[in-house]
Amino acid sequence: MEIKFSHINSRDFKDLSFTIPKGEIIGIYGDNGDKLLRLISLEEEARGIIYFNKIRKLRSNYYLFRKMMVLVEKRFVNIFDVDNIYEYFVSYIRYKKIEVDDIDKRIKDSLRIVGLKVDILERRISTLTFSETKLLQFALAFLSNPKVILLDEPFRGLGLKTVNKLMRILTRLKDKFSKTIIIYSSDSNYLYQYTDYLFVLYDNKIIAEGNSKDIFFDNEDISLYNIRRPDIVDFIMLVKDKKNIKLPRRVDVKDLIKDIYWDVK
Fold this sequence. Notes:
Layout lengths: L2 E8 L5 E5 L4 E6 L2 H8 L5 E7 L2 E2 L5 H6 L1 E4 L12 H11 L7 H12 L15 H13 L5 E5 L7 H18 L2 E5 L3 H7 L2 E6 L2 E7 H7 L2 H4 L6 H13 L9 H12 L1
Parallel strand pairs: 3-8, 3-9, 6-7, 7-8
Antiparallel strand pairs: 1-2, 1-4, 4-5, 9-10
Helix pairs in contact: 4-5
């Protein structure tokens, strides 16, 4: 789903215009990126023109677009004061007014997507590990089969194994079902590695946008505003400046090590 924002004014942003590409994993990086994420999710009040697939958002159809999106918060907050996981799923479905024919099947399908076993439904939320809680947040988000999935710092506190698992899930949803995934992260390493398109913010303005794999190399504004580049990009650029060796723009460090090995050899 392409989303176009034109001349948006809110508490934090003035005259902001940008377009969210359809069916991509999009990254947001920089100051107040979490606030831009909430603006996109329609949770923040804003004035301006917004189009969803060329359909303009109006007061009369606002709720339809809200139902198409889901925001996975940075931290899990138990909003129902329910500790049993199955009861929490049921409460969530009713609270969000998600239309389902078979509640149990929908819950099990959501668990299967994130790789959680069905027997977790018998457990208490308070017994979950940090990684299990994050996967639970994703399973809850998928209950409504959203077209747009927004993630606030989804990688913080997770091990590399869980991060890779989450990204395999999100990539599959993008490739197979054309979901639009929007990720805010304060870590440029993750955004460089896992996203297709990137918005870079500074002083509540979008100072750069484009292909995530190129934007840190090619956009001079990044260095002008002292915005941190990914570690692998810094290394590739350092090798070029100090040794006059042009390495490929790799994403995986292992691939880069192979390039260095063959260049030295």
